[in-house]
Amino acid sequence: MTNPLWTLTLHGGAGGITRDVLTAEQDSAARRGLSAALAAGSQVLAADGTALDAVAAAVAVLEDDPPFNAGRGAVLTREGNISLDAAIMAGDRRAGAVAGVTATRNPVTLARAVMDEGTHVFLAGEGADAFSLVHGLEQAGEAWFVTPERRRQLAELQAAGAGAFDVDMKYGTVGAVARDVQGHVAAATSTGGVTGKRWGRIGDSPVIGAGTWADEGCAVSCTGSGETFLRIGVAHAIAARVRHLGEDAGTAAQAVLDEVVALGGTGGIIVVTLDGNTATRFSTKGMYRGHASSAAAPRVAIYGDE
Ligand code: ASP
């Protein structure tokens, strides 16, 4: 079988997602959101656009969609605020990332602006918010980002006791990997982190090489227990296996996911290699996910048995 000309794979977070946890409405809202994101990214790729533009477009759609833990509908910090993290990277090693941002409607667009500006790779907090203003990106506030459901989830967590932390992480960090018609790959990831986070906590998602990576061999986006993914450098570890050991996407992703689990972590990974080979792997009960290519109709899934 010949490889597809272009390919796009998405995730909307991995966690304890089973049919008895989601209502029918939640199930269909997530599927609608994933389908819309696949359509946005596919449109770019089908028109010979770049993998970079495609992953940014797909992630921005999910950021605007309340069921997912990124942008609008991001989970809340212990103080009830939002603090958003995002990263984007192209196979030619251009990269941009932001952490702890509070005012840009689409954090992935801010990460992209950091990358395009080219001086720095990783901006955080107030400085990143200021960079966003200087570059004229669309701003948004609490009325846009914070949803009643996230307030309810924070209250539920706080009722469980001081220091409680969302260990189940079923709320949906988002990410995309793509390969375009020219054979370039790119990855992007965006998240609100974990419910009830404090002390300026940052997970793996915006950290280049941990939650997001692209190089001459593949592109990777992760979701899961950020503290474990950080200590393994998951996305880079997968890329190193692909480049140095010649492993395919699935073999490399599974090997590194096994390391995450051995270290007590959990989560999911999407990978695309330069030849368009893709893999989705997760250690959790479910993972919001989707795939489309020039050779295959779009497909979305949530549960482990799909
Ligand atoms: N990895 C994200 C973080 O640690 C959370 C997630 O993927 O759900 O911030």
Describe what is shown at a glance.
Strand 5 (174-179) and strand 6 form a beta hairpin.
What does this structure look like?
The protein is an alpha+beta fold and 306 residues long. It has a single domain (7-303), classed as 4-Layer Sandwich (Glutamine Phosphoribosylpyrophosphate, subunit 1, domain 1), CATH 3.60.20.30. 35% of the residues lie in helices and 25% in strands. It has nine helices and twelve strands. The chain has helices spanning 24-46, 51-63, 107-117, 125-134, 142-145, 148-159, 226-232, 234-245, 249-262, and strands spanning 7-15, 84-90, 95-101, 122-124, 174-179, 185-191, 212-214, 218-224, 267-273, 278-282, 286-293, 296-303. The strands form two sheets. Strands 4-3-2-6-5-1-11-12 form an eight-stranded mixed beta sheet. A four-stranded antiparallel beta sheet has the order 7-8-9-10. Aspartic acid is lined by residues 13, 169, 173, 191, 193-194, 203-205, 211, 223-224, 226.
> How far is the first residue's CA from the last residue's CA?
23 Å
Bound ions, cofactors and other small molecules, one mention each: aspartic acid
User: Helix content range of the residues, please?
Assistant: 25-40%
Q: Mean pLDDT, as a whole number?
A: 94
What number of structural domains do the residues give?
1
- CATH homologous superfamily classification: (Glycosyl)asparaginase
* Order of secondary-structure elements: EHHEEHEHHHEEEEHHHEEEE
Largest sheet: 8 strands, mixed
| Strand order, sheet with most strands | 4-3-2-6-5-1-11-12
Beta-strand proportion: 25-35%
Total beta strands: 12
